[in-house]
Amino acid sequence: MEGGVDYLADERKKAEFDVQQMKIVWAGSHHTFEISDRISKLVANDPAFSKDERTMLPRKELFKNTLRKASYAWKRINDLHLSEEEASQLRFYVDEPAFTDLHWGMFIPAIKGQGTDEQQKKWLPLAYKMQIIGCYAQTELGHGSNVQGLETTATFDPQTDEFVIHSPTLTSSKWWPGGLGKVSTHGVVYARLITDGQEHGIHGFIVQLRRLEDHRPLPGIIIGDIGMKFGNGAYNTMDNGVLRFDHVRIPRDQMLMRVSQVTRDGKVVQSDVPRQLVYGTMVYVRQTIVQDASCALSRAVCIATRYSAVRRQFGSHNGGPETQVIDYKTQQSRLFPLLASAYAFRFVGEWLKWLYTDVTQRLQANDFSTLPEAHACTAGLKSLTTSVTADGIEECRKLCGGHGYLCTSGLPELFAVYVPACTYEGDNIVLMLQVARILMKTVSQLGSGKLPVGTMAYMGRIEHLLQYRCNVQKAEDWLNPAIVLEAFEARAARMSVSCAKKLSKFANPEEGFAELSADLVEAVVAHCQLIVVSKFIEKLQQDIPGKGVKQQLKVLCGVYYLFLLHKHQGDFLATSCVTPKQASLANDQLRVLYSQVRPNAIALVDAFNYTDHFLGSILGRYDGNVYPKLYEAAWKDPLNDSVVPDGYHQYIRPLLKQQRSAKL
Ligand SMILES: CCCCCCCC/C=C\CCCCCCCCCCCCCC(=O)SCCNC(=O)CCNC(=O)[C@H](O)C(C)(C)COP(=O)(O)OP(=O)(O)OC[C@H]1O[C@@H](n2cnc3c(N)ncnc32)[C@H](O)[C@@H]1OP(=O)(O)O
Ligand SMILES: Cc1cc2nc3c(=O)[nH]c(=O)nc-3n(C[C@H](O)[C@H](O)[C@H](O)COP(=O)(O)OP(=O)(O)OC[C@H]3O[C@@H](n4cnc5c(N)ncnc54)[C@H](O)[C@@H]3O)c2cc1C
Questions:
Q1: 122 located within any domain
Q2: Atom of ligand 1 lying closest to residue 421 CA
Q3: Given Cys at both, which of 324, 346, 474, 525 links 294, Cβ 3.0 to 4.6 Å?
Q4: Closest approach atom of ligand 2 to CA 433
Q5: Measured in whole angstroms, how far is the alpha carbon of residue 496 from the centre of its chain?
Q6: What is the pLDDT of residues 359-393, one digit of tens each?
Q7: Does the annotation list 178 as a binding residue?
Q8: Residue of 425, 463, 476, 632 marked catalytic
């Protein structure tokens, strides 16, 4: 803290709950809090992990710096014998996208999920020691969303017992894979399997890309970086790459063969495992992206909340201090729903992690029954949480006024690094449409006696939900979780049923689906918001120790669902789930809740336990010492290295001279 002064101390004194206990709720457990707290400090106190100049560095220097940090991080992980959990916390607090993300986050999971036991035995030890570095090479120049449209071919050659990997067209060039451009030695490459002239769909193949001796591409391989991306610093630390194959040969046993096998004589044998498992790595990463959404949103909210308490505009009485902008109701109505959403996403992320672990255990025992539920939840929640988070970060920037636009606020880089999450790992609309298909299938099976399960179970009460009438009579009734849940269930069910009815009028269901796709996406949003609301309410049913902690979470949960109800009141009214009077009462209650959040706002963002290093924001400093630090930072800009700028003699002086002579 600057000279030991805490400019936010008075705010911190207003807290009505035990912040330390809230930190543990946020972290998930004492154990994860301890690891996260220790590793965040380890990173913050190590100058090798400084990120001060990231937005100023030219690409080559930026990238080299990332290589340095990644290699240093790996050394620290080994020297300190960090566990996998500690290592991934270290990666989180280093806060810089790097090739290692794809190696650990996709290459290894792809081999684990789609490789046979022998393949795992052969490749995983090399990958775990980083003796090979891998990427996930699926997307091509011409196709990303449409995985079945990929053009790269893997043709089996029975003469040599090899696959020939080939890029037949320009659009078949692999394009986007992270870590591919400059680093990876290997990739899991997705290609159309062809044996004996017949196509057998998309499969993953382990392909060596670069020589281990001198890092040069192997014969037949063209490889490079695809160029600068949005923003300074941001995702430009990653070498997203382009890759072309000219009849590159790999041994047959490098096709990932858990889902299907190709025999020595070129026969394709389907195992009992469903073919959708080829998409399994995406399910895994989508689940991690939901957890990450709460991190990115909480970070932006932490910056905007602290700064809103520091910043004062207007409202001085008799020469007294002006009003803190956090006290304006408009500021609260924009900021507090985002604060509540950060907590909501945290809890739904925790639940999704549980769901994913459960599915993985079942898959290992060859029980594939919950795979569609895992697909629907990860796809839908990935879309919902990343869209809200990306928009939320931008809203936080606006909440910080002009200073939010400075790189030193940390918000521009956070936005630039985060926003591709709406696209990668499945474009958000494309994923919503996947969920829409599953919802429509569920509605169509309602009469058949097949009861919907998991997060679709509420559809099993469709008769009741179609007749439901909300009985809220006064504003406080909206604090009753049972009432809220039913209103959200009825809204989601009615929107789905309405789409299903419209769909049934089309002779060609695919045409109908395309025509109604915008309505379907709205129904999916309603369904996914219901999941988040219900998981928040479930969280509140747990035993949560600590003075006032549960009460604060109840307030945040109320803010979350009442804000949604207010924002989407068109849906609730159009489906007759609430009356205009009830919608208005919901908004009255929401204002009451905002005033309950207000004294706790700073403590609620302190509970994220973010270090100043991690936040990387002058506006979000823990001590609130914003103005002197902003002033100081301005002078560090390279433009201020000299009083007279480079280019003065060439461009400014002749201009001024010309104006002078024109006047004379
Ligand atoms: C600093 C250094 C430190 C060092 C530290 C070291 C330690 C570090 C430790 C840990 C670090 C870890 C960090 C991890 C971070 C990870 C970050 C990752 C960053 C993200 C990068 C982004 C990567 C990518 O983008 S990869 C490419 C993703 N691509 C997509 O998502 C494509 C989207 N398209 C699709 O998914 C599909 O094509 C489709 C589903 C849209 C359509 O496909 P289709 O035509 O085949 O499908 P159908 O519509 O016909 O459906 C068929 C059938 O299948 C079902 N289905 C579809 N998808 C799935 C699925 N995924 N799972 C299960 N089932 C699925 C569908 O419902 C249909 O079912 P039916 O029953 O109806 O037949
Ligand atoms: C930063 C970043 C990192 C990435 N890393 C990797 C990686 O490591 N490995 C990898 O393989 N890939 C990677 N990708 C690629 C990424 O997965 C794809 O870009 C993503 O899946 C979207 O596909 P697309 O680019 O084909 O979008 P498109 O499908 O071309 O989308 C364009 C527009 O069309 C719309 N659209 C498309 N299909 C439909 C439809 N059926 N109905 C309605 N609308 C539709 C979309 O909503 C969107 O608005 C990365 C991408 C980015 C941006």
A1: yes
A2: 20
A3: 346
A4: 42
A5: 26
A6: 999 988 889 999 999 999 999 999 999 999 999 99
A7: yes
A8: 425
Domain that holds residue 198: 107-271
Domains contained in the chain, number: 1
Alpha carbon of 506 to ligand 2 centroid (Å)? 29
CA proximity to 468, closest of 568, 354, 596, 582? 582
CATH no. for residue 112?
2.40.110.10
Residue 229 within a domain: yes
Question: Cα–Cα distance between 516 and 514 in angstroms, integer?
Answer: 6
Residue at 402 is within a domain: no
Token code pair at residue 515 = 């025509």
**Angle at CA 378, nearest 5°, toward 376 and 381?**
95
Instruction: Return the residue matching tokens 């308490």.
Output: 309
Which residues are CB-contacts of 535 (< 8 A; sequence separation ≥ 6)?
Answer: 344, 347, 348, 351
425 has catalytic annotation: yes
Residue 299 included in any domain: no
pLDDT digits (tens, 9 = 90+) for 126-152: 999 999 999 999 999 999 999 999 999
**Rg of the chain (C-alpha set):** 27
- ipTM > 0.95, yes or no: yes
Task: Check pocket membership of 145 for ligand 2, CB cut-off 6 A.
Answer: yes
What string of H, E and C letters represents the secondary structure of 113-149? Answer: HHCCHHHHHHHHHHHHCCCCCEEEECCECCCCCCHHH
pLDDT for 659 equals 65
